[in-house]
Design brief:
7 strands
């Protein structure tokens, strides 16, 4: 099957409030996330399950519950890529990156820790953002279903360390 590149522009903004202390960064929303208009929208992505288990709360249902979970725990969500060319949801295909303006977000929050969900977000953050923010990001194992090497239990254990300030 021959897939071609598509130019993707991030279609929804960051989720944060002035009390956010930990910023979680993905790369760019997947086609499933863009379809629902919110972060980690693919039904097999384990992000919401990992977050809920790490905090010992029920799995959020729907976007409003997901927003409440994030904000009630001092978190913020965004991505490192504002626009790029990509084949489907393939991180390895990303090219022509335009980064998001993370320093502007940090100026409106109390963020003191940045977690990158997966290798691509860490790579892009380090390349485009680290010099602008001065905050080293922590690589976290991807919650994507493509990261089958990490069980939910291992993800919860590792993410739980990063989510504690």
């Amino acid at each position: 099957m021959n897939q071609s590149y598509h130019h993707v522009v991030h279609s929804f903004g960051p989720l944060y409030n002035e009390d956010s202390r930990i910023l979680i960064l993905g790369s760019i929303p997947s086609p499933a996330s863009r379809a629902v208009g919110f972060y980690y929208g693919h039904p097999r992505n384990r992000f919401w399950q990992v977050l809920a288990e790490a905090y010992g709360v029920p799995l959020p249902e729907g976007i409003e519950e997901k927003k409440a979970l994030v904000l009630s725990h001092g978190l913020a969500l965004w991505d490192v890529i504002e626009e790029c060319d990509i084949i489907g949801a393939s991180d390895s295909s990303v090219k022509n990156v335009v980064p998001t303006d993370i320093p502007a977000l940090l100026a409106r929050t109390k963020v003191e820790r940045i977690l990158c969900n997966g290798a691509l977000s860490k790579k892009i953050y380090d390349k485009y953002q680290l010099g602008r923010t001065g905050i080293p990001a922590i690589w976290m194992p991807s919650t994507s279903p493509a990261n089958a090497a990490w069980s939910v239990e291992r993800l919860v254990e590792e993410w739980g360390k990063g989510l504690t300030i």
